[in-house]
């Protein structure tokens, strides 16, 4: 089980440690620092390390390493999932997950960690349950607390802990009952030089925001559930009913949660919304290169592509760029060699184009690698897989809730090779 | 208001100030002070001197303050054991509190105070809490038992807490069940009796019920626990699988992977041809793919596990190769794992795509990744024969880029491609030679030198090229030196006229100026070989090399099976069994995959025919053996190489006395020696023999013929001994087909002589035969030669030629061979024992000294002596076995001895 947790910032300082069993000296982190040194980039530190007496399992998120030290054989995914859950909880409580905010709220952080894990066993990791026991900080409460001497630790047994619906707290009351669902799809794709799809899939999630009084039992059904053959659900979803009827039946947690995530990988279902015509070349002898990128709409289902952005990691030898864009703005970061072209809305009548010359370090050899383009985009009111919610029904409560569904398509890891 | 203010009091009298604040009269001030103390503690400051003052704050009805004090206590009780006693009373009182939250908190905190004196007081409250009416308290108490066990295992057992814990498995609340399982699993890791969790069908049923209702973390514990259960039959296995399958759709990746483990393990128990089995295989693929869309850390663990799964059951993910394509912003550890799996899944169907990807990767920035991508292209060439041509041209393209490390890596893999497809791609040698100067890594230099030596006759200026390497001979690595030595000897044997000087130069460099014993010995061997008998030298050095095969990096099958049982654990990430890295692993028991028992009538367990469809998973590194003298291969060859050196050593020692060793077979494989009476009957292993990765049963010898030759002076019978035919498959068991047969060896080939008799009333046709994987890799080299239908009461004698190049799997007994015979009526299975003598080669004779030295080299423990009884040879005979009816055997693989003896025994008796 998880013995200790160390939070380490970008520059390698341990700014928080927590031990659930006996105290493990922080010198154990030296093995991690060694690996970090070797990996150069923090993203590249291997998540599972072995030291003479401990295993170190770490995650890297929001510029913080969550490093856990372990003494016995434990499923590493269990630890990784838990560490991410810790990060999610910080995010949920403090609005962000950063060194400053953790230090600002160190007592709550400590209380949370104590509540989330007991002797290495996860105890309460559901946000609903935790919030009943440890109230999140807010300005009003801290003022009230100082005045009245109240505390931010709940005095009641968290009801969700023991019921069959551990994710939902009891006695929820709202004056406005509402349930919103966001269907968000991300396109992961690799296109090759000629624009052919090498690989494409859609990662979809349904994010829910449910504020309903009492114990509502919801049923969400789709127009075309057959699209979904690879799904993973929030624990509240009744799997049996999905298997037999292809509907999502559940008692929702209170507040925001991810209802389900799914994957559509069948190639012919994945529409690629834009095409990219690009030409990046470096001259063999001279110290310059050319760049020419045009983007146009491909399969947009009649919707507008917004938030279009192109990011290019240039080879090290590229010193400066001299480019003109017909639309949007472009910047080139000299230190990181990243060219960002922020286009905005895609106008099918007048395709955006970026062209110009790249000036190279004199005398440097012709770069060996070809930079990939990373595309970012958004399409409102469209789920690119074609998934559509048909209806939401509520049982178990008498009132009539306000319901809403939104769709959004984004580019995930969308790459164009050159 | 934030907590950062607690960090600011960094000045000198900090502790003193805190002390004063802790003793303040106002409750609020005290709480603030405790918060400051906690803040100091979290950043690792020592605030233990405040212990008594903090404990004083414990008597409060403010839950938050209580919690904070508890936090402090847990951290510092160990260093202040005497003070900690002061807190005991409050704990005991809190355990009786009407509020279950406080009861649970108290029992939880007490368990975390690792002080012996306190644990004594803990027992009574804990016992009560384990039977508390509130499940929240019970589940907290369950974990507390595990804590207590960690501090004082003996006490936990004496107090009967383990039994209470087992009772909790039947608890009505799923959370309590999950925690009890988790606690028991943790205890059993350090407990000598690891079977604490007595898994029986009733328990399993309770666990499965709890599985649906408990938290995600509880599900992980329960699934891991389920995977240790061995269902009694396939129906039970299937019903468990059915109830576990829904977990594959869980959002928590750890739950998914634990469910995959249970399913992978129980799949073994399901009949391979059932619909359910195939459906389950299909269901396993999407969740594994989904894991790859998680965070990079999750992807990494998932990929390490998928690597095992594709080796065990490639069919699950064979359609999904695209998800393993690398994205440029993947972390490097993910990229490398993806690449590995891509190669494992590469097949003729997808090779074009894979190659296009690999070529793309070879132009990326990260050097390690690029190298691995180039290597991967080579592995594809070796794995998928149809793609070799395309791979080679891709590699050539890459060499043209002139990027230094790409060129070097490409040359190393081209060497392997030459080994796999000799005399096919020599046209590219010229291109390779152009890059000679840019090679600065030992691997690449050695590879290039090998290529030049191997194809010296086709390279006009081979001598110049090799000579250029010779200049800095002493600065080269051993690997390059050895390869260069061999290459020049090869060159000399091919073009003796022009290169005499060169070879002398290298031999003197190797033997006189080098400190490296390997190099010196090899130099001497060549020198002597060349000076004594150039013809033999040619035979040895320029011998035909066995081909290499692709699967040199597969995990050895028994280890793979063990690792499959550990999917999701650290073992699966390291690809090592837990015993190899878990400290104090006395509690670790080796896990095995369950074995599917066929309930049908067939005498062979498991369907051999079905098993044969599985891919070969034996790294056939043995094939490389024959070439050790010629080539230093990059990949480690884990077969003892000593014997080659020893042969050399013997040669050197005996050089003055004897003529050169006549190396009949230049085999360097472990050799077995058979010693009968006072006669030496040396033997060696055929070089085609593929040893299994376990200490290989290398029994092979031409001993028999020699035995007769030496002892009785009988002429060598080319036929060798063959036992009379015995009935292998009685007609009653095979719907009228009777098979009797025996094994024999004739003219250096092995045969299976069989008589097929049709005792049924209908005719039989469409005969076919297949062998299961076996210890010696025996397979038929031709289809069953029965071409006409077999009429009722007709019988036919056939002889099936055999070879030992098939897949190897250690059998028990060692010489067991499982055979499946098909005809127009049905498929039948039987198993037979192969007499070892059919493996003995005719040319295994060995020189006396060599034999003696090697005999001594095998440890004495491996020597076994057998009495040969009831020898039926006539009394007048004075052959050695009759005079000395004792057989001494020494084998590198001791388990073979017994079978060699049995074979001798039966030969002599007949």
UniProtKB/TrEMBL annotation, chain A:
> Quick check: keyword Transcription in the entry?
no
UniProt source species = Oryzias sinensis
One Pfam family, please name it: Adap_comp_sub
Q: Which InterPro entries match?
A: Adaptor_comp_med_subunit (IPR050431), AP2_Mu_C_sf (IPR036168), Clathrin_mu (IPR001392), Clathrin_mu_CS (IPR018240), Longin-like_dom_sf (IPR011012), MHD (IPR028565)
Q: What is the lineage of its organism?
A: Eukaryota, Metazoa, Chordata, Craniata, Vertebrata
Family named by the database record: Belongs to the adaptor complexes medium subunit family.
Q: Which GO terms describe its cellular component?
A: clathrin adaptor complex; cytoplasmic vesicle membrane; Golgi apparatus
Give residue ranges for domain MHD.
176-417
| Record's protein name | AP-3 complex subunit mu-1
Q: Where does the UniProt annotation place the signal sequence?
A: none
A GO BP entry is: vesicle-mediated transport
Q: Does the keyword Ribosomal protein apply?
A: no
Give membrane topology per the record.
Answer: Peripheral membrane protein
- Tell me which UniProt keywords the record has, alphabetically: Cytoplasmic vesicle, Golgi apparatus, Membrane, Protein transport, Transport
Entry's localization field: Cytoplasmic vesicle membrane; Golgi apparatus
Automatic annotation (TrEMBL), chain B:
As for membrane topology, the entry says:
Peripheral membrane protein
GO CC terms of this entry = clathrin adaptor complex; cytoplasmic vesicle; endomembrane system
Which part of the chain is the Clathrin adaptor alpha/beta/gamma-adaptin appendage Ig-like subdomain domain? 721-831
Q: Which SMART domains match?
A: Alpha_adaptinC2, ARM, B2-adapt-app_C
Against Pfam families, the record matches this protein to:
Adaptin_N (PF01602), Alpha_adaptinC2 (PF02883), B2-adapt-app_C (PF09066)
Alphabetically sorted, this entry's keywords are: Acetylation, Membrane, Protein transport, Transport
Coiled coil stretches, renumbered = none
Q: Where in the cell is it found?
A: Endomembrane system
Cite the InterPro entries for this sequence: AP_beta, AP_complex_bsu_1_2_4, ARM-like, ARM-type_fold, Armadillo, B-adaptin_app_sub_C, Clathrin/coatomer_adapt-like_N, Clathrin_a/b/g-adaptin_app_Ig
One GO molecular function term? clathrin binding
Q: Which GO terms describe its biological process?
A: intracellular protein transport; vesicle-mediated transport
Beta-adaptin appendage C-terminal subdomain domain residues = 840-909
Record family assignment: Belongs to the adaptor complexes large subunit family.
Q: State the name under which the record lists this protein.
A: AP complex subunit beta
The organism of origin for this protein: Oryzias sinensis
């Amino acid at each position: 089980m998880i013995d200790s947790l160390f939070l380490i910032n970008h520059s390698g300082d341990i700014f928080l440690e927590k031990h659930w069993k006996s105290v493990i000296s922080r010198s154990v982190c030296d093995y991690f620092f060694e690996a970090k040194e070797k990996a150069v980039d923090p993203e590249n530190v291997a998540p599972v390390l072995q030291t003479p007496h401990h295993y170190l399992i770490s995650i890297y998120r929001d510029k913080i390493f969550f490093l856990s030290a372990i003494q016995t054989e434990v499923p590493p995914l269990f630890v990784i999932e838990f560490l991410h859950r810790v990060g999610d909880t910080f995010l949920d409580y403090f609005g962000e997950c950063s060194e400053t905010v953790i230090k600002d709220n160190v007592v709550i952080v400590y209380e949370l960690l104590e509540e989330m894990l007991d002797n290495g066993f996860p105890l309460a990791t559901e946000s609903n349950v935790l919030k009943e026991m440890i109230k999140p900080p807010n300005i009003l409460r801290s003022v009230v607390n100082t005045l009245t001497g109240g505390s931010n630790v709940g005095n009641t047994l968290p009801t969700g802990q023991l019921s069959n619906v551990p994710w939902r707290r009891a006695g929820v009351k709202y004056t406005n009952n509402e349930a919103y669902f966001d269907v968000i799809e991300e396109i992961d794709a690799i296109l090759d030089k000629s624009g052919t799809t090498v690989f494409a899939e859609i990662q979809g999630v349904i994010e829910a925001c449910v504020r309903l009084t009492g114990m509502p039992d919801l049923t969400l059904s789709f127009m075309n559930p057959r699209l979904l053959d690879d799904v993973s659900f929030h624990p509240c979803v009744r799997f049996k009913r999905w298997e037999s009827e292809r509907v999502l039946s559940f008692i929702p947690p209170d507040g925001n949660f991810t209802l389900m995530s799914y994957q559509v990988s069948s190639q012919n279902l994945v529409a690629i919304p834009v095409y990219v015509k690009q030409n990046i070349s470096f001259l063999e002898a001279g110290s310059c290169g050319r760049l020419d990128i045009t983007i146009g709409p491909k399969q947009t289902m009649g919707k507008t592509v917004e938030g279009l952005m192109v990011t290019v990691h240039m080879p090290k030898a590229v010193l400066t760029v001299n480019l003109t864009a017909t639309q949007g703005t472009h910047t080139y970061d000299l230190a990181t060699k990243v060219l960002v072209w922020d286009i905005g809305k895609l106008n099918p009548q007048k395709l955006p184009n970026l062209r110009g010359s790249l000036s190279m370090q004199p005398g440097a050899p012709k770069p060996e690698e070809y930079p990939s383009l990373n595309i970012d985009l958004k399409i409102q009111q469209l789920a690119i897989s074609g998934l559509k919610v048909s209806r939401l029904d509520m049982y178990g409560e008498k009132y009539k809730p306000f319901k809403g569904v939104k769709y959004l398509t984004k580019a995930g890891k969308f790459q164009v090779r050159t | 208001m934030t907590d950062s203010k607690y960090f600011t009091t960094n000045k000198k009298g900090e502790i003193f100030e805190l002390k004063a604040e802790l003793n303040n009269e106002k409750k609020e001030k005290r709480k603030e002070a405790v918060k400051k103390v906690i803040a100091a503690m979290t950043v690792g400051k020592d605030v233990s001197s405040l212990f008594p003052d903090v404990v004083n704050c414990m008597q409060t009805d403010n839950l938050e303050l209580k919690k904070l004090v508890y936090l402090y206590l847990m951290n510092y009780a160990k260093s202040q054991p005497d003070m900690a006693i002061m807190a005991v009373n409050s704990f005991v009182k809190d355990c009786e509190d009407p509020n279950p939250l406080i009861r649970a908190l108290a029992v939880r905190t007490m368990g975390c105070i690792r002080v012996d004196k306190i644990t004594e007081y803990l027992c009574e409250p804990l016992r009560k809490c384990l039977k508390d009416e509130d499940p929240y308290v019970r589940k907290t108490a369950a974990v507390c038992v595990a804590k207590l066990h960690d501090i004082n295992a003996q006490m936990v057992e004496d107090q009967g807490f383990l039994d209470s814990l087992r009772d909790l498995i039947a608890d009505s609340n799923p959370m309590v069940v999950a925690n009890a399982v988790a606690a028991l699993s943790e205890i059993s890791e350090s407990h000598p009796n690891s079977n604490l969790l007595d898994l029986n069908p009733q328990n399993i049923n309770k666990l499965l019920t709890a599985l649906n209702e408990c938290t995600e973390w509880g599900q992980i514990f329960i699934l891991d626990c389920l995977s240790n259960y061995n269902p009694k039959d396939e129906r039970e296995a299937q019903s468990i699988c059915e109830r576990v399958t829904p977990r594959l759709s869980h959002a928590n990746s750890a739950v998914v992977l634990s469910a995959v483990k249970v399913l992978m393990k129980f799949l073994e128990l399901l009949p391979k041809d059932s619909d359910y089995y195939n459906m389950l295989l299909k269901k396993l693929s999407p969740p594994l793919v989904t894991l790859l869309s998680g965070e990079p850390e999750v992807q990494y663990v998932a990929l390490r596990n998928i690597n095992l799964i594709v080796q065990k059951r490639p069919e699950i993910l064979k359609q999904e190769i695209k998800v393993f394509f690398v994205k440029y912003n993947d972390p490097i550890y993910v990229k490398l794992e993806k690449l590995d799996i891509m190669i494992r899944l590469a097949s003729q169907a997808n090779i074009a795509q894979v190659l296009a990807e690999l070529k793309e990767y070879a132009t990326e920035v990260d050097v390690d990744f690029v190298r691995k991508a180039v290597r991967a292209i080579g592995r594809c060439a070796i794995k998928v024969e149809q793609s070799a041509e395309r791979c080679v041209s891709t590699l050539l393209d890459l060499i043209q880029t002139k990027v230094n490390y790409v060129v070097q890596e490409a040359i190393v893999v081209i060497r392997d491609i030459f080994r796999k497809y000799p005399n096919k791609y020599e046209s590219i040698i010229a291109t390779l030679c152009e890059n000679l100067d840019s090679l600065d890594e030992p691997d690449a230099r050695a590879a290039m030198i090998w290529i030049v030596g191997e194809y010296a006759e086709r390279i006009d200026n081979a001598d110049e090229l090799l000579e250029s390497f010779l200049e800095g001979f002493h600065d080269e690595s051993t690997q390059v030196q050895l390869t260069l030595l061999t290459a020049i000897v090869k060159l000399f044997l091919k073009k003796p006229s022009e290169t005499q000087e060169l070879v002398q130069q290298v031999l003197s460099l190797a033997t006189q100026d080098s400190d490296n014993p390997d190099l010196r010995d090899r130099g001497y061997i060549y020198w002597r070989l060349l000076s004594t008998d150039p013809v033999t030298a040619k035979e040895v050095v320029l011998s035909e090399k066995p081909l290499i095969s692709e699967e040199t990096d597969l995990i050895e099958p028994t280890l793979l099976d063990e690792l499959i049982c550990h999917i999701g654990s650290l073992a699966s990430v390291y690809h090592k069994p837990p015993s190899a890295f878990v400290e104090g692993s006395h509690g670790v028991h080796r896990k095995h995959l369950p074995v599917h028992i066929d309930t049908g009538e067939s005498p062979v367990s498991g369907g051999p025919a079905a098993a044969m469809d599985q891919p070969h998973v034996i790294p056939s590194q043995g094939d490389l053996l024959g070439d050790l003298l010629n080539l230093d291969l990059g990949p480690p060859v884990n077969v003892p190489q000593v014997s080659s050196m020893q042969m050399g050593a013997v040669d050197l020692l005996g050089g003055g006395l004897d003529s050169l060793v006549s190396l009949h077979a230049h085999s360097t494989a472990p050799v077995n020696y058979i010693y009968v009476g006072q006669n030496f009957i040396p033997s060696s292993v055929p070089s085609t023999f593929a040893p299994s990765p376990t200490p290989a049963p290398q029994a092979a010898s031409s001993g028999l013929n020699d035995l007769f030759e030496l002892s009785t002076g009988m002429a060598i019978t080319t036929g060798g001994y063959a036992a009379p035919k015995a009935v292998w498959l009685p007609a009653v068991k095979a719907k009228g087909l009777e098979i009797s047969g025996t094994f024999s060896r004739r003219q250096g080939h092995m045969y299976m002589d069989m008589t097929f008799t049709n005792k049924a009333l209908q005719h039989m046709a469409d005969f076919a035969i297949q062998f299961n994987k076996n210890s010696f890799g025996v397979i038929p080299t031709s289809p069953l030669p029965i071409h006409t239908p077999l009429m009722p009461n007709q019988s036919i004698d056939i002889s099936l030629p055999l070879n030992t190049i098939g897949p190897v799997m250690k059998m028990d007994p060692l010489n067991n061979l499982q055979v499946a015979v098909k005809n127009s009526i049905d498929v039948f299975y039987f198993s037979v024992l192969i007499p070892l003598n059919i493996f003995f080669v005719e040319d295994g004779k060995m020189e006396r000294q060599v034999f003696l030295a090697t005999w001594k080299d095998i440890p004495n423990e491996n020597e076994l002596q057998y009495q040969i009884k009831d020898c039926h040879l006539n009394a007048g005979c004075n052959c050695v076995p009759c005079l000395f009816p004792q057989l001494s055997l020494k084998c590198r693989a001791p388990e073979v001895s017994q079978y060699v003896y049995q074979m001798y025994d039966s030969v002599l008796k007949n």
